[in-house]
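Marked as duplicate of an earlier ticket. Keeping the data here for the record.
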Amino acid sequence: MNLHKVVRGPINAVARDRLCTLYRMTGKQERDERGLTTPVFAPGEEVRAQIQSERAAALEHFERVETTTTRRIYLYAEYDPALRPWAQWRPLARSGDMLQDDLGLYWLITDVIEDFTHEGWVSVLGVLQTTPITLRIEEDADSGSDDGEAERGADGVLP
């Protein structure tokens, strides 16, 4: 029984689902002239999410609790391991997907708290990115891009 589907109505009566964009880490990285690496993400996919505060008792267990904003995020998710959100998943060399919320803020997925992807949802831990970020997006091969990739600024807009 999919209990998540049963409670969606009451949950949305209190707090609506937010339309977010999920960027899946491809496992690839690019190195710049200084030797710094930048992860490469797949094109964003629109997802519905519930972003909620974490319990105070749980926050005591997280590192750097004084300097980070951490939220529990509930997402609809596919069962396929290549399509579901991940914090780290070594078989695909993924090191943390990125979620852009409806306010334009970026959240790094650092942990999968509850994995019910066999029922269509997952609960992840997101850490708010407080410094400007640049997402390196790997565009689809048939998108017409010359080099197959594009860079997206912190505002989420391609130049």
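See parent ticket for discussion. The beta strands are 18-23, 25-31, 37-41, 45-53, 70-76, 98-100, 106-116, 121-128, 135-138, 149-152.
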